[in-house]
Amino acid sequence: MAKTGLILTNQVNPAQSAQLAALPGIARVITPPADQPLWQIPPETDILYTMPKDAWKDAPETAPPGWPGKLRLVHTISAGIDGLPRWLMDAPLMSRGRGTTAGPNAEYVMVALLEGDKRLGAALSTTGTTGDAAI
């Protein structure tokens, strides 16, 4: 018996296809060939999982014929939409990964501040721990 649900086209990372297929409501995940233009979305696609890539820079100025077709949702994993064609936003719903990198970015900023002020990297490299370092 075929699994019922939505068809997702994964343009982000083929290694994620099995994880995406395990999500509730996903019947099938399509992973297009790497050389297929990103705007040539399989017509049965309900959800497009994408990201700004250099390959989008060659996208046509106007939407492909029949756009958005059966498509219900475009999700880009990036916070921004720079580099995506304007017509991609004409899908019924569009979501983005705003906030998904906030934690790692905050950690980076804190380490950069500590490095600049307390030379944390030098202390760690000479002692191996912060316990013996004069921070």
Can you describe what's shown?
The chain is of the alpha/beta class. Helix content is 22%, strand content 16%. Strands 2-1-3-4-5 form a five-stranded parallel sheet. It is elongated and about 60 Å long.
In short:
By secondary structure, the protein is α/β, with parallel strands linked by helices. The protein has helices at residues 17-21, 102-118, 120-127; strands at residues 6-10, 26-30, 47-50, 73-76, 93-96. The chain has a 5-stranded parallel sheet.
Mass-distribution shape = elongated
Number of strands: 5
Helical content (DSSP H or I, runs of 4+): 10-25%
Strand order of the largest sheet: 2-1-3-4-5
So how many helices?
3
Q: Overall pLDDT, averaged? A: 84
Low-confidence stretches: none
How does the major sheet shape up? 5 strands, parallel
Structural class: alpha/beta
Query: What gap, in angstroms, lies between the N and C termini?
Result: 64 Å
- The amount of beta strand, in percent, is 15-25%
Please write the string of helix (H) and strand (E) elements.
Answer: EHEEEEHH
Using the CA coordinates, give the radius of gyration.
Answer: 21 Å
